[in-house]
Each structure stands twice: as C-alpha cells, then as structure tokens.
Automatic annotation (TrEMBL):
<comment type="similarity">
    <text>Belongs to the peptidase S9B family.</text>
</comment>
<comment type="subunit">
    <text>Homodimer (in vitro). Interacts with KCND2. Identified in a complex with KCND2 and KCNIP2. Forms an octameric complex composed of four DPP6 subunits bound to the KCND2 tetramer. Interacts with KCND3; this interaction modulates the channel gating kinetics namely channel activation and inactivation kinetics and rate of recovery from inactivation.</text>
</comment>
<dbReference type="GO" id="GO:0015459">
    <property type="term" value="F:potassium channel regulator activity"/>
</dbReference>
<dbReference type="GO" id="GO:0008076">
    <property type="term" value="C:voltage-gated potassium channel complex"/>
</dbReference>
<dbReference type="GO" id="GO:1901379">
    <property type="term" value="P:regulation of potassium ion transmembrane transport"/>
</dbReference>
<keyword id="KW-0812">Transmembrane</keyword>
<dbReference type="GO" id="GO:0006508">
    <property type="term" value="P:proteolysis"/>
</dbReference>
<feature type="domain" description="Dipeptidylpeptidase IV N-terminal">
    <location>
        <begin position="1"/>
        <end position="177"/>
    </location>
</feature>
<keyword id="KW-0735">Signal-anchor</keyword>
<keyword id="KW-0325">Glycoprotein</keyword>
<dbReference type="InterPro" id="IPR050278">
    <property type="entry name" value="Serine_Prot_S9B/DPPIV"/>
</dbReference>
<dbReference type="GO" id="GO:0008236">
    <property type="term" value="F:serine-type peptidase activity"/>
</dbReference>
<feature type="domain" description="Peptidase S9 prolyl oligopeptidase catalytic">
    <location>
        <begin position="259"/>
        <end position="362"/>
    </location>
</feature>
<keyword id="KW-1015">Disulfide bond</keyword>
<dbReference type="Pfam" id="PF00930">
    <property type="entry name" value="DPPIV_N"/>
</dbReference>
<keyword id="KW-1003">Cell membrane</keyword>
<dbReference type="InterPro" id="IPR029058">
    <property type="entry name" value="AB_hydrolase_fold"/>
</dbReference>
Amino acid sequence: MVKWATNTKVAVNWLSRAQNVSILTLCDATTGVCTKKHEDESEAWLHRQNEEPLFSRDGRKFFFVRAIPQGGQGKFYHITVSSSQPNSSNDNIQSITSGDWDVTKILSYDEKRNKIYFLSTEDLPRRRHLYSASTVGSFNRQCLSCDLVGNCTYFSASFSHSADFFLLKCEGPGVPMVTVHNTTDQKKLFDLETNEHIRKAINDRQMPQVEYRQIKIEDYSLPAQILKPATFSDTTHYPLLLVVDGAPGSQSVAEKFAVTWETVLVSSHGAMVLKFDGRGSGFQGTKLLHEVRRRLGLLEDRDQLLAVRTMLKEQYIDRTRVAVFGQNYGGYLSTYILPAKGENQGQMFTCGSALSPITDFKLEGQQFLIIHATADEKIHFQHTAELITQLIKAKANYSLQIYPDESHYFHGERLQRHLYGAIVNFFAECFRVQDKPPTAPAREEEEEED
C-alpha cells in the first residue's frame, strides 16, 4: 500500500514475504527518509493489508484499521488513530471503535466536527451499515443508515469533500437505490437513482425466496443462505446446488441484491441454491479466519459437506439430484468435494462444475464441467490442461468449455451471457428428471396348450 499523505509525505505499508509482519511508515518524498508509525504481527497471517489510511489535512493525524483482541472469537478490525505529538518522536495511538464486529471501510474524516465515518458489521456479519464515531472524548458511535431506507440492510457510501453531505447506496436485500443526504441530521435531500425499471421487472417475476440459518460446527455457529423457488412447498422434492467460494477471508452469505445465473436456475428450473461461510471465512473474527492456517482445503471442504448433509435432512431435498459449483479457489474446493460419499457409501453429488480450477482430483462417474479462459492472467490455463491430462488417464466423464484469448474476468455482456448460459444449461440437464423407460407389461399366464 502506498498513499500520499501530504504534498511531500507518502504513507508506505511494508509486508514481510510470509505476510505475518507489517510496518506502516511515513516517508519524506524529498529526502527518502521513512519514519515507522505502526508495526503489526500475527502468528498466522495479516489480513486486509492493502487498505489506505485516512489523513488529516496537515498529515499529523491519520486513521487506519487494525485487528484488536475482542475475547473468545479472536481479533476484529477496528479504527485506530495515530497522532503526532509536538516535540516528541512518539505518536499517541488510540482505538476509536471496539467490539465483536468489524469495521469494513473507513469513508471520511470530518475535522471540523471531529467525526469519522465508516461501514461496519455491528448489526450482523452479513449486513453493512453506515456509522459515525466521535474522534474526541468517549468516541460516541451512531448508526446513520439504520432504519433510514426500507428493505435495506447492506449499504455503501461516499462523502463530499467537506463531509457536509453523503451519497448513500442501498445494495440490498431490496432493489438497489442511491440517495443524497445531509450529514448533520441524515435528512434525505433527493433520490439520485431509484431503479424503478428494475423494481417493476422484479415485481413482474417470481423471484427466489431467501432464507438464512445457522449451522453448528464445533464451537462455531456459522451462516448459511438458501435460495428457494417462489412457489416453494415442503411437499415437493427439489434439486440442490452448493455454490462454493471458501477463499480465506471471503464472504458468501450477505444481504445484497443480485440477479445472477443462480437466480435463473432457481426461478426457471426449480432448483435450490445453498451458500455457506465455514471456517476460514471473513467478518467473524480472526479465530475462525485462521482456523485454516497450514490446512487449506482440509477444513473448508468438511464444512461445506456438513452444510450439504444438514440440508439433505430436509424432506424437500431430492438426494438424487445434488450438485456443486465453484470458481477460482471455490473451483479448487469443488473438485475435492465432488467425489464425497453420501449415505451407504454412495455418491453425494450427481454432477459438478469448476470455473478456473486450481487442482487435480478423482472422479467416479459424475458429470463434470470445466470452464477456463485461455488468456487467464490470474489462474493460468495450465492448471486446467494438467487437470484434463489426469482426467483422461482416469477415463473420467468430463466436458470442457474454453474461451479463447479471454482474460480471467470475462469482460463483455455477450461473453458473460454465454458463460452463464452454459452453466445454467449444464445444471438444468443434470437436474432433469430422466424419463423412465416403459416397463414391460407383466407376462400373462401362458395360455393353455392347444
């Protein structure tokens, strides 16, 4: 991380190769001399090291996020202020926020009102609200977005240069909208974007029901999100798709609005989609995050499989139609999950798909779709080529969808439609109830011999 603090001073964050020690310095651009402002270390690894500090106008005071111990759940990320003292080489460091929740982003510092504005998970890990906190005295904190917009619990925001006004973006669970507010009393000044056309389109369609639940794993109660068809009935049997992310520090369960290929699979093909934040996921304390230290791929797949087994206990899940999908690190996990055994040592998953996977694995008869762009600069196509070599040797049943000369991020609406269409069609075919061949009529008793 490198950021200009003033016209002559630049903040530089140095990180060890093992990513377990960081040093935040303030460097003079004219002389090249750097002064250490803060040092942090971890027995595992340091998370969120690319976030920029927020400086006062004179550069003598700055705010940054660091992990602070908060009891049994480990450390949570909170705002710390560092103030230079006159005639002293030591800085005064104070924590402005605390609690078993994370500050996810520092947005603005209002020097004339002595307030800092930020987003946090204080309400719930799957939510984001806008808060202010005093930078003097007892650091009183106030939620600015709570109950401000109906059917919205996930926000982002940006402030004017003077911090007199802020732009508030509702990102879910309702249709996103953008409003402009007065910072002093949070009064709405006007709507910038209401997305009425999207709202009307949503109202005219049968959108999935969204359910949240907690799943117990050892000492943790971890969040799951389930997408159900709008016409859901517990007397009907539905196929189940597990969508895996699982990268350390990631979050799959969030109250954000989204219309994706998963929405199409649920609404148009009657499937159910499961997402689960297991050990190693973010925004639930560093104890949970660091559980996967030196054990990548060992705990995450167990947790995802436990979430699936929990769902298979429900009478409305069709155990013969269960699938898994993952992308990037999730693709890595999905390849390990796919061969898992269910009851009576039978296959738990009917089929699976991985987008830009990173590993090799064993298949035992399931359908498997591999998708990769040949010019992927993040996860090289070599991973898929090596995987295919092993699949051929194992005589595995797989399909390959490549995108020539395309990058990792699949830019372009037409390309994305083709990609998501391929994924939906694959799982729709996997979940299709096969027509049973007509049974032979019972053989009538042989006619009496003439």
